[in-house]
Amino acid sequence: MKELKAKFLLGSPSRKFFPDTKLPEFAFAGRSNVGKSSMINFLTWQNKLAKTSSTPGKTKEINFFDIDNQWILADLPGYGYAKTGKKERERIQLLIRDYLHHRKQIFCVFVLVDSRIPPQSSDLEFLKALGEKNLPCAIVFTKADKPGSKGALKYLKDFEKRMLEDWEELPPSFITSSSNKIGREQILDFIDSSLISTN
């Protein structure tokens, strides 16, 4: 099992607080209830690195983590519905947009998608926007262990079919379960390969 040394750097509520680092960055994005914090803890093998909550939308900043002094993990606030006010939602949307538009060291944006449910327009639109900006991205299908996940393969095919309406070639994808420890090594291997290919 690959071990990582992960260290919290800072939380940035706006662009001017982004850390001054030149390390390659891998961002994790997704809807507010997709299980992003659990995935980050699973990926880094640290149960309390990212704060998990039963209430969607708790992350209001972009949290930056140093991984092995080799790359930065950027935990983006959830997009889509969350129990917060309109102004706060607009601020978060601007924060995510500023990060994606201006952060030059982004190597890949991992977009987390709930494997148990049919394709959601917010996920498809977010991925389409990344494609239009030529930002490298990958899809991480989460919660493959949860009740109802027997339909995951069906929904995965439905999701890919919907994406092909706008994409000529689909980005890489991973099927994961933080509970059943599925998909971690594949994602880390993908990150390692991305780092090697640029050296």
Would you kindly provide a written description of the structure presented here, covering whatever features stand out?
Mean pLDDT is 87; it is low at 53-57. With 199 residues, this protein is α/β, with parallel strands linked by helices. It has one domain: 3-Layer(aba) Sandwich (Rossmann fold). It has a seven-stranded mixed sheet with strand order 1-3-4-2-5-6-7, sandwiched between helices. 32% of the residues lie in helices and 21% in strands.
List the helices and strands and how they pair.
Blueprint: E1 6-12, E2 25-30, H1 36-44, E3 62-67, E4 71-75, H2 86-102, E5 106-114, H3 121-132, E6 137-142, H4 152-163, E7 173-175, H5 184-197
CATH architecture: 3-Layer(aba) Sandwich
Order of helices and strands: EEHEEHEHEHEH
Strand content: 15-25%
Strand order of the largest sheet: 1-3-4-2-5-6-7
User: CATH superfamily assignment?
Assistant: P-loop containing nucleotide triphosphate hydrolases
Low-confidence stretches: 53-57
> How would you classify the quaternary structure?
single chain
Instruction: Tell me, rounded to a whole number, the average pLDDT.
Output: 87
Estimate percent helicity: 25-40%
Largest β-sheet summary: 7 strands, mixed
Which geometry do the CA atoms define? globular
Number of E-type strands: 7
CATH class equals Alpha Beta
In CATH, the topology is named Rossmann fold
| Domains (count) | 1
Radius of gyration: 16 Å
Straight-line distance between termini: 25 Å
Q: Name the structural class.
A: alpha/beta
Discrete helix count: 5
